[in-house]
Amino acid sequence: MSTLDKASLTNPQDDVKVQAGQVPSILSGQVPSLPARLGKVGRSVYSQLLHRLAHYQGEIYPLHVGDTYLSPAVSMSEVESLEHADCLAHRYTPVRGHQALLTQVAKWLSERQGMTVHENEILITGGGTAGLSALVGALLAPDDELLLLAPYWPLMAGATRLHGAAPVAVPFFQEGLSIEQGIERLNQHLSPKTKALYINTPNNPTGEVLDKAYLQALVTWASQHGLWVISDEVYDLFCYQGEHQYTRPLDPQRVISAFSMSKAFGMAGYRCAILQGPPEVLSATERVLTNALYSAATPGQLVAHEALSERGLAWAEQASVAYQAVGQEAAKRLQVPAPQGSTFLFIDVSTEVGKGGRFESESGGVDRLLEACVDRGLLLAPGSAFGPYPQHLRLCFTAAEPEVVLRGVDILVELLGR
Question: What is the CATH number of domain 84-308?
C-alpha cells in the first residue's frame, strides 16, 4: 500500500467534539443541554490534524491507529460456507454468543491458560471496545474510580467517563518500577472511591510485557483492597520476549480478561471479541450489552469460530514474526528500546519539543512536531491520548506494509534529527 483514500482520513466529523450545552439549532434556547460528561469524551482520540491532508499529494503513512496490513486467516467470502445449520449469517445469535463459538472459545482458553474454562465464563462482544465499555458499565457506578496503569489504551478512559465514573492515571509503564515501587505507586492513587484496576499487557502503547511475578503482585494488591481487576490481553499472541502470562488464573473470582479477534487474528472489521470472567459479572455485563449492542455481528462470530483453530494460530505465529521484525527495525532507527510485545512504540520526544528543541511550542507539547509530520504524510498519535504524556508520540508499526512503515519512520527520524 503506497497511498490511502484521503477522504477516509480527512472527514472533518472525525474531529468534532460534543460541547456540553451547545446545540446547533435556532431553537437552542428551547431544548435541554447535552450531558456535561460527553464534553469529556472526544470522537477522535488519535489525531486532530487529519484535515491538513486535504491537499497533500504524496505518500501517506497511517501509523496513528492500531491495525494490521495483513489479510486475516479467514476471509468474508468464506462466511457462507462456515454457516452452521442452527445459525445463518444474517440472523441474530444469543447475546452471550453463538453456541459453537462459546464452546470453541472455552476450549481455546483452557488450553492456553492451563485451567478449565467453562462456557458460562465467556461472553462474546462486538469488538473489545464494546465489551470493555459494557464491562465498565457493569462494574462501576457514577463517581467510582478506575485505576489505569499508564500509559493506557485511550478508549478505556473514554468508556469510564461515558458511564459517569472517573479514570485515574497511575504512571507505571516505562518507569522502570520494581514490584515494591509499583505497589507504592498504586497506594498513592488509591481512594475510597476506587473500585477496579485496569492492566494492559502486552501494553498499548509502550509494548512492555508484565511477567507473572509482577502480575501476581498487582492482583494480590487488588485483592487486599477489594477491587476488581480488568485485564486487557488483546495482544496476547504478540509477545516477542518469553510467553504471555494470562492474568485470570491468578484470581478467577476477581479478574475479568479481554481478548480480541481484531488484534490476535487481524479481524478488526469483523467486530468480535471475548470477555472471560466470573459468571455473575458477565451476566451483569450481558445486560448492558443487550440494551446497547445486543449480539455481536453473526458473520464475525462465524469467522472467529474458524480462526480459533490451527489455521488461525499459524496465521498469528507468522504475523508475530513479521511484526517483531519491523518493530525491532523501527525501534533501531528511532534509537528507542525494541518492543517486548504488542504493535506499538511509545516515543519520548521531550528533547525535541521541550525548551530549546527544534519543535519547541508554547504548550510544551507535540503539536508543532505533529504538524510537521502530517505535512510529510506521516500520521502519529499524540501521547496525551494515553495519559499524562504530552511529550510522547505513539507509532503503530503494523498499520501498513513494513516498507511503508519504515519510510514513515525515516521521516520521523529526519524530523527529530536522530
Answer: 3.40.640.10
